[in-house]
Design brief:
The chain is an alpha/beta fold. The chain contains 6 helices and 6 strands, in the order E-H-H-E-H-E-H-E-H-E-E-H. It has a 6-stranded mixed beta sheet, with helices on both faces. Helix 2 crosses helix 6, helix 3 packs across helix 4 and helix 5 runs antiparallel to helix 6. The longest helix has 22 residues. The radius of gyration is 14 Å and the shape is globular. About 40% of the residues are buried.
Length: about 160
């Protein structure tokens, strides 16, 4: 796959407060490792736009992760807004592909607010918060992410 680095951020008020256990973040990290990514950072942050934005910037600008994946869902969900605030370019087809795949499983997928795009040399992708939905959505796009990172690095087709 190419030895790319990844960071996984779980956005959850309850997990960050220790009142719930994060299962989606570890699941996503395991899937990325199995696909050949070096998961260099994982973190849990509360669903507060500035905290999410700061965590995203840390992963992109300080750690220079090739891929940053968020997972999380809460009544206060502001992850898409925080993600858009740090993007240079949005890539709408990634969330569209996840939506298409998810709609084959559940009509609830239409409630997704996922965002994906780039910041510098980093690809960012929002996933849903449940472990099952995060696994399904990442599975739908994971084969294309390595190619996208190669293209971003100037690797051609």
């Amino acid at each position: 796959m190419g030895g790319y680095t990844a960071a996984v951020l779980t956005v959850s008020d309850r997990c960050s407060a220790g009142t719930a256990v994060d299962t989606s973040g570890p699941c996503v990290a395991d899937m990325l490792r199995a696909a050949g990514y070096d998961v260099v950072h994982t973190a849990i942050v509360p669903d507060e736009q500035e905290r999410i934005r700061a965590a995203l910037l840390h992963c992109c600008d300080a750690l220079h992760a090739d891929l940053v994946v968020t997972t999380g869902l809460s009544p206060r969900d502001v992850t898409p807004e925080a993600t858009r605030a740090v993007l240079d370019r949005e890539i709408p087809a990634i969330p569209q592909a996840m939506l298409y795949a998810s709609l084959q499983i559940t009509p609830h997928a239409m409630l997704s607010r996922a965002v994906a795009g780039t910041r510098g040399g980093t690809l960012l992708v929002n996933l849903p918060g449940s472990e099952k939905a995060a696994r399904e959505n990442l599975s739908a796009v994971l084969p294309a992410l390595g190619h996208g990172l190669k293209m971003m690095a100037g690797g051609g087709h």
